[in-house]
Write a structure and sequence with these properties.
The protein is of the alpha+beta class and 157 residues long. Helices cover 38% and strands 32% of the residues. A hairpin with a 2-residue loop joins strand 4 and strand 5. The chain is flat, with a radius of gyration of 20 Å.
Length: 157
């Protein structure tokens, strides 16, 4: 049982670590991407409900910015403000305080010339990539600890 748990934990950690590193790489590259003018079509706080295993629920709020832009006559839509995880808050007021754009606002869109659907409004920003990296490292350490103890025959309590 310890081997399976350790492998799952370490594997999940490795996945999160790689994801965080890719977010950092993309965020760094985005500083050099070409830009085009876009327009914010929606700026609002999005509410979702999380349900726990015991059936209880909690509301989570996240700033949501949707913008459009056109490249070579083709129109695109995106909600990616920066690289990294999108933060969710338990307070609507906190999410509203993080909303930095307004509907109708003209914005500068940084786009990947090799994939024009990959865009950001804030190049180089990494958002929750630090959290993804740290959680990945913790999972790898815990998984490695469990695997090491299992191989050594040390019982887990």
């Amino acid at each position: 049982m310890g081997t399976v748990f350790g492998l799952l934990f370490a594997g999940t950690g490795l996945f999160l670590l790689i994801r965080g590193l890719l977010q950092f790489r993309s965020s760094k590259a985005s500083r050099d991407w070409p830009t085009i003018e876009g327009q914010v079509t929606q700026a609002m706080v999005d509410m979702s409900i999380d349900r726990d295993e015991d059936g209880s629920s909690s509301r989570k709020y996240a700033p949501l910015v949707i913008y459009t832009y056109a490249i070579l006559g083709r129109e695109y839509t995106s909600d990616q403000v920066a690289f990294g995880s999108k933060w969710r808050y338990t307070s609507r007021a906190k999410a509203e305080s993080k909303l930095r754009y307004q509907s109708g606002e003209q914005v500068i869109v940084y786009y990947n010339p090799e994939n024009p659907t990959q865009t950001v409004l804030e190049p180089g920003a990494v958002g929750g990539a630090w959290g993804t990296l740290l959680i990945g490292i913790v999972f790898i350490i815990v998984g490695g600890f469990v695997l090491f103890n299992t191989v050594q025959g040390i019982p887990m309590k």
